[in-house]
Amino acid sequence: MRRNLVAIALAASLLGSLAAQPAEAAVVIKGVSTTAGFKWKPHAVSVAKGTKVVWKAVTGTHTVTAWKGRWSKSTTIRQGTSTSFIFRRIGIYRFRCLFHSTLVSGVCRGMCGRVTVG
Ligand SMILES: [Cu+2]
């Protein structure tokens, strides 16, 4: 009986600490126009597990399209709108804009980016 009470108290404190966690911190990657064409700024970010990454189309219309890593996403964002993804697993995730990048022999050029989750 006493053991059960300890287990219940432990579970309650664990739940309490989970509930006290703040919402996932967000990292913002912006789709912008540069003299070298449209780019993601920053084009590479390193984040902790559980981080929400937000892509915002500041200038132009873009897609956030996964092309490498264990994830699936292809979302079009019109100027002024955004999309997001919460990265819950360690890994390297590459994305690109289908309108403003090329993918040739596994090399992305143009509007390409990378999220490293560690
Ligand atoms: Cu684009």
Give a concise summary.
With 118 residues, the protein is an alpha+beta fold. It has one helix and nine strands, in the order H-E-E-E-E-E-E-E-E-E.
Question: What does the model show?
Answer:
- The chain is built from 1 helix and 9 strands; from the N terminus they run αβββββββββ.
- It has 118 residues and is α+β, with helices and mostly antiparallel strands.
- It has a single domain, classed as Immunoglobulin-like, CATH 2.60.40.420.
- The strands form 2 sheets. A 5-stranded mixed beta sheet has the order 3-9-8-5-6, with no helix packed on it.
- The longest helix is centred in the N-terminal third of the chain and has 19 residues, at 2-20.
- The model has no long low-confidence stretch (mean pLDDT 88).
- Copper (II) ion binds at residues 31, 38, 60, 62, 97, 99-100, 111.
- Copper (II) ion (CU) is lined by residues 31, 38, 60, 62, 97, 99-100, 111.
What's the helix and strand layout?
Layout (H helix, E strand, L loop, with lengths): L1 H19 L5 E9 L2 E5 L2 E4 L3 E7 L4 E7 L5 E4 L4 E6 L3 E14 L2 E11 L1
Parallel strand pairs: 1-4, 3-9
Antiparallel strand pairs: 1-2, 4-7, 5-6, 5-8, 8-9
The chain binds copper (II) ion (CU).
The site of copper (II) ion has 8 residues, from strand 8.
Record field, number of beta strands = 9
- How many discrete domains? 1
Q: What gyration radius follows from the Cα positions, in whole Å?
A: 19 Å
Report the oligomer. single chain
Key features?
118 residues; alpha+beta; Immunoglobulin-like; 1 helix; binds copper (II) ion
